[in-house]
Amino acid sequence: ITIHKAELVISAPDRHSWPESDLPEVVLAGRSNVGKSSLINTITQRKKLAYVGNTPGKTRLLNFFNLNDQYMLVDVPGYGYANASKTMLKKFGEMMEDYFAERTQKRGLLLIVDARHKPTEDDRLMIDFARYYDLPCFVVATKMDKLKRSEIKKNLNVIKETLLLREEEVLIPFSSETKQGVDEVWDELLKLFNS
Ligand code: GTP
Ligand code: MG
């Protein structure tokens, strides 16, 4: 796929600001600093479409990215960083619940985890949340460039087991550094977008 257009439509604090659109949407969620924005830039071959930072928790709103006037990718704020306040956590939960419950054009969830670490309780909650709403999911293990060869198999298994991945929920090894997995991510995205 060639991305000839990729633009941020809106950063929405709540459902009143979701864009009016009938493009199919895939939501991209993961822990803070895991590499969500980097993945968006990598798969769209843009350098700074999505903001990449060293300060965790930079993305606080739902960012809607229009790709080729065909698809919408929705970047979710990273969860799980240490100094999130109770108020922010509550707001995050409400925002996601609104989205999952009300957004009719949603087609799936891309959950990103760090290939180096066991997924957290928050990751489990996120994927279970999507499953509860019957939203198809797939998982991307990013930062594969940081793994030693000997760790690859073991780490991917830990991710599968911790998230209790189902047969149809594929796990894709990925790296924004080496571009490993870009084609596989697009294959899964297109399946969801066209479903
Ligand atoms: P929040 O928006 O704060 O939730 O973060 P995010 O999930 O969008 O992460 P972001 O893409 O901003 O990346 C966080 C840090 O990880 C940056 O310093 C990136 O350069 C780095 N990073 C992202 N992906 C990779 C990768 O595949 N490999 C390596 N080595 N570093 C990565
Ligand atoms: Mg981000």
UniProtKB/TrEMBL annotation:
Keywords recorded for this protein, A-Z: Cell cycle, Cell division, GTP-binding, Magnesium, Metal-binding, Nucleotide-binding, Septation
Molecular functions (GO terms): GTP binding; metal ion binding
InterPro entries referenced in this protein's UniProt entry, alphabetically: G_ENGB_dom (IPR030393), GTP-bd (IPR006073), GTP-bd_ribosome_bio_YsxC (IPR019987), P-loop_NTPase (IPR027417)
Domain EngB-type G: 22-195
Any one cellular-component term (Gene Ontology): cytosol
Short name of any one Pfam family annotated for the protein: MMR_HSR1
One GO biological process term: division septum assembly
Superkingdom of origin: Bacteria
Essential cofactor(s): Mg(2+)
HAMAP family given in the database record: GTPase_EngB (MF_00321)
Family per similarity comment: Belongs to the TRAFAC class TrmE-Era-EngA-EngB-Septin-like GTPase superfamily. EngB GTPase family.
Function: Necessary for normal cell division and for the maintenance of normal septation.
Name by which UniProt lists this protein: Probable GTP-binding protein EngB
Organism: Dielma fastidiosa
Protein's gene: engB
